[in-house]
Hints:
Blueprint: E1 3-4, H1 11-24, H2 29-51, H3 53-56, H4 60-79, H5 82-92, H6 97-105, H7 112-128, H8 131-134, E2 153-158, E3 170-174, E4 180-182, E5 199-202, E6 235-240, E7 245-251, H9 260-266, H10 268-276, E8 280-281
Helix pairs in contact: 1-2, 1-9, 2-4, 2-7, 4-5, 4-6, 4-7, 6-7
Amino acid sequence: MAVTVVAAEPYAELRRRTLELRTRYGFARQLLDFYGALLAVQENAFHDARRLSIALVGNLDAYVADVVVPSVIDVTVAAGPDRLRSDLIRRLGTEEPREIVGRWMRSADQPLVDRYLARASLGPVLEALDAETRAQCEGPRDRHHCPECGGPPQLSCFEVAQEDLATGPRRLLCARCGVTWGYPRMTCASCGETDTAKLLVFTEYGNTSGERGSVVRGLPGAEPVRVDRALFPNLRVEACESCRRYILSIDLAIDRAAVPLVDEMAAIPLDLYARERGFAKITPNLMGF
Length: 289
């Protein structure tokens, strides 16, 4: 199984795409503005962890809780959505940050607010470190999970093909450490279903790339309408009728400026559409969608 490690300097691209999409998608602007503020904290955590990599072996949860969590709390209270801010303050009155981070490392079930704090704090540290350190996390090492940390997939993406007439490979991106790994096409990323009759692909009208397209709500609160140009031409919903799970997929050949993590976060209407049809996301993203 081929693994791709996180790029050495991922944050410049994350900031660029966040600024670009906040202008393009007014309905996601508040979320992306908050994410942009959080990126500054995560970038500092990433570089600090790089400098201290040897010292963090065996002490990861304590380091993240003591050093990174306070900055994540500060930016969330200052710039986060009202609901997230109040839930976080209330939760920290009853739970220790080290326990919250530790449960995410152990792949335990958590409320969304706990998972947000753990992901936002631990993610940049895991991205900065090596496979040995990521192996401190628990979770299955099968084809549906990250081969390095055992985390679940956040999204699917199709890379740009090396040859003009070829189709780029499919990869899954880990929700916990940001590593990507190869995964077969037309296979459910949750249960491994391969029966194409049970695998649904939803795209917008105006997007000609989907095998089984269906109208997708254009804006939250609006009635479905047919449009000539898709809001998300490089994204689609990949859903499975066997397990009733779905994942968002980003095609980098359609938009080479895309940054999968940011594009997936901004695609709120696609998440709403899938959930209205009874599908549950394999892993809600950092912002809870």
